[in-house]
Design goal:
With about 60 residues, the chain is mainly α. The protein has helices at about 5-10, 20-45. Helices cover about 55% and strands about 0% of the residues. It is elongated, with a radius of gyration of 16 Å.
Length: about 60
């Protein structure tokens, strides 16, 4: 995930009109959309999604 200060810089002048909470919400939504697009890209190419190394393990 992109650190908040870096994301503010990426947003540019638009960040001046948003609170840190609003910027975090935009960043989180952008991160979720990126996951959706990447998963869709994997499905279109029939590439299995890698599971986290601890998937299915119980502690």
């Amino acid at each position: 995930m992109i650190p908040l200060p870096d994301f503010k810089r990426i947003l540019g002048p638009m960040a001046n009109n948003l609170s840190d909470g609003q910027i975090e919400a935009v960043r989180d939504a952008q991160d979720r959309l990126a996951d959706i697009f990447f998963d869709s890209w994997l499905r279109e190419r029939n590439i299995p999604k890698l599971q986290p190394h601890n998937a299915g393990k119980t502690t």
